Amino acid sequence: MPDTSEKVGAVIVAAGQSERMGDVDKMFALLGGQPLLLRATRPFQQCSLIDRIVVVVSGEKETQCRSLVAGPDWSKVSDVCLGGRRRQDSVAEGLKRLADCDWAVIHDGARPLVTVDLIERGLEAARETGAAIAAVPVTDTIKVSGEDGTVGETPPRRNLWAVQTPQIFAIGIIREAYQNAGEDVTDSSSLVERLGYKVKLYMGAYDNIKITTPADLALAEILWQQHER
C-alpha cells in the first residue's frame, strides 16, 4: 500500500459520447437515484488512500459536471477538465492535473459499481511492479477470427482475462507511457506494456460492469439494489 508520504491521484474518465445509449447521456443517467458520474466518483472520495480526484469530461458536459461535484461532499475533487478526441487524450489531460502525485488511479466514469475495496487492493497490487489493473477471468470460450470471419484460433480460456478499471500506475511509468503514445488503444495498460513494464493483474469484480447500452444500465440497477441490501 502506498505509504502516507506518497500522494495518490485519481482520474475519472467521463468524456465519452454515449453513442449506444440513444438519447441518454450515461454520465447523468440515474443509478440508485443518483447520476452515474457520482456513483463512480464517490468510492474515490470515500477511500482514505486517495488524495485528489480529477474528473475529465467532454465540452458540452463541463458546466453540469462541475455543479455535480461541487461542495464539501466532494472535497477531493480538485479539477474538472475537458477531455480530447480519443480516450487516451482524455486520460492524458487528467494526468496533467496530478503534478504532485506519486501514483495515478485511472477509472472509467461508466463503471459506477467500483468499490473502495477494489481501489485499495489495486494500490496494494501495484506496489509489486509499479502497474496493476483490475480484471476478471473470462467465463465464455473466446474465438479469434480471421479476416474472412472464420475461426482462426481458440485460445485457452484459463489464460484469458477481461480487463476493467481501476488501473493503477506509478506516476513516472504512466507519464512515460502517454508521452510515447501513438495509435489508438482501449486502455492505459496497453501503453505501459509496450514500454516493457510488467503489469500486474489483480482480481476485479464481475459486477464492476461498464455501462455502454440501456441494457447495461438496467442490469446495473439490479446489481446496485443487491449491494444496498
Folded structure, characterized:
This protein has 229 residues and is of the alpha/beta class. It has one domain: Spore Coat Polysaccharide Biosynthesis Protein SpsA, Chain A (Alpha-Beta Complex), CATH 3.90.550.10. 32% of the residues lie in helices and 24% in strands. It has seven helices and eleven strands. It has helices at residues 36-46, 62-68, 87-96, 116-129, 171-179, 188-194, 214-228; strands at residues 8-14, 30-31, 34-35, 52-57, 77-82, 103-108, 131-137, 144-145, 151-153, 161-170, 200-203. The strands form three sheets. Strands 5-4-1-6-10-7-11 form a seven-stranded mixed β-sheet, sandwiched between helices. It has a two-stranded antiparallel ribbon with strand order 2-3. It has a two-stranded antiparallel ribbon with strand order 8-9. α5 crosses α6 (188-194).
Task: Give keywords.
229 residues; alpha/beta; Spore Coat Polysaccharide Biosynthesis Protein SpsA, Chain A; seven-stranded mixed beta sheet; two-stranded antiparallel sheet
Which CATH C-level class is it?
A: Alpha Beta
Work out the number of β strands.
Answer: 11
User: What is the CATH superfamily classification?
Assistant: Spore Coat Polysaccharide Biosynthesis Protein SpsA, Chain A
What does the main sheet amount to? Answer: 7 strands, mixed
Q: Going across the major beta sheet, what is the strand order?
A: 5-4-1-6-10-7-11
User: Quick check: average pLDDT?
Assistant: 91
Distinct helical segment count = 7
- Give helix % range: 25-40%
Q: What CATH architecture do you see?
A: Alpha-Beta Complex
Name the poorly predicted regions. none
Strand content: 15-25%
Mass-distribution shape:
globular
Succession of helices and strands: EEEHEHEHEHEEEEHHEH
- Distance, first to last CA: 30 Å
> What is the number of domains?
1
Q: What's the CATH topology name?
A: Spore Coat Polysaccharide Biosynthesis Protein SpsA, Chain A
